[in-house]
Structure to design on (114 residues):
């Protein structure tokens, strides 16, 4: 059983930055394929960024490429997503989850508004 707990959401103005964190437990962290997803009510869930630490592979959605980065701290079993130059279109609830979405966190709200 993988447990995932997100933190770091909030409200920012356009152009601002936030860093999301996701603390993982219950499985050897480097072997986890983890990703950040986001969802807006009434819209389909969108995969934003993914990482496979053991192979040092990352994937970033075109919609956020150049603005968001994904990383991990194996010593802390924590996944991060640095979000820069935020836009109103990034407003959503962000979820940390395994690639197959079998396990996910409770979500953290990100609101970008002037």
């Amino acid at each position: 059983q993988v447990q995932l707990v997100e933190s770091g959401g909030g409200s920012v103005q356009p152009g601002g930055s936030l860093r999301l964190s996701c603390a993982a437990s219950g499985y050897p962290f480097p072997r986890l394929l983890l990703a950040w997803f986001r969802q807006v009510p009434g819209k389909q869930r969108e995969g934003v960024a993914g990482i496979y630490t053991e192979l040092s592979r990352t994937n970033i959605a075109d919609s956020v490429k150049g603005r968001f980065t994904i990383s991990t701290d194996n010593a802390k079993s924590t996944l991060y997503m640095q979000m820069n130059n935020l836009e109103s279109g990034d407003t959503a609830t962000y979820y940390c989850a395994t690639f197959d979405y079998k396990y996910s966190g409770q979500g953290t709200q990100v609101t970008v508004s002037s």
Summary: DSSP finds no helices and ten strands in the chain. The mean pLDDT is 95. The radius of gyration is 13 Å.
